[in-house]
Specification:
By secondary structure, this protein is of the alpha+beta class. The protein has a single domain, classed as Beta Polymerase, domain 2 (2-Layer Sandwich). Helices cover 36% and strands 26% of the residues. It is built from four helices and six strands, in the order H-E-E-H-E-E-E-H-H-E. The chain has a six-stranded mixed β-sheet. Helix 1 packs antiparallel against helix 2. The longest helix is centred in the first third of the chain and has 19 residues. It is globular and about 35 Å long. The relative contact order is 0.23.
C-alpha cells in the first residue's frame, strides 16, 4: 500500500513538473499488464529542442526520486528519463507523432492530464 501511494505521488509530481514548463498533451500509460520492466510511461511534447530540454531539466532538478538513467540529450528531440517503475518520454511534437507510443501500446489504459489537476491513476 505504501509503495502504491509513493508511486501515485511520484506520477503526480512528474505531471506537475511537466506543466510548470508548459509540456503539451501529457498522458500516462499504465504498462503494468505488459511484460516490460516498468509500470508507467509518462509522455509529453515540447515545441522545439530547447523546450524539450527545459522540461527534462525541470524534472531532473525537482523530482524527489533520483533518475536511474537518461538518454537523448544530444539531439533533444526525444529525451527519456528512466526512474525504474516510471519512464518519462519528452518528445518534440513531430517526433512524437512519428513514433506514436500511444498507438504502439494501444491496449494500455491511458490517463489524460487535464488542465488543472492530473487524472486519478488507479494503482
Amino acid at each position: 500500500m505504501r509503495e502504491k501511494l509513493k508511486q501515485e505521488r511520484t506520477l503526480r509530481e512528474v505531471v506537475a513538473l511537466i506543466a510548470e514548463k508548459k509540456g503539451e498533451e501529457t498522458v500516462i500509460l499504465d504498462m503494468r499488464e505488459f511484460s516490460i520492466p516498468t509500470d508507467f510511461f509518462v509522455i509529453t511534447s515540447g515545441d522545439n529542442p530547447k523546450h524539450v530540454k527545459a522540461i527534462a531539466e525541470n524534472i531532473l532538478e525537482k523530482l524527489s526520486v533520483p533518475v536511474l538513467r537518461s538518454e537523448g540529450w544530444e539531439s533533444k528531440n526525444w529525451i527519456v528519463l528512466d526512474y525504474g517503475d516510471l519512464i518519462v518520454h519528452i518528445f518534440q511534437r513531430e517526433l512524437r507523432k512519428f513514433y506514436d507510443l500511444e498507438g504502439l501500446w494501444g491496449d494500455a489504459p491511458v490517463y489524460l492530464e487535464p488542465e488543472a489537476e492530473p487524472a486519478p491513476v488507479k494503482i
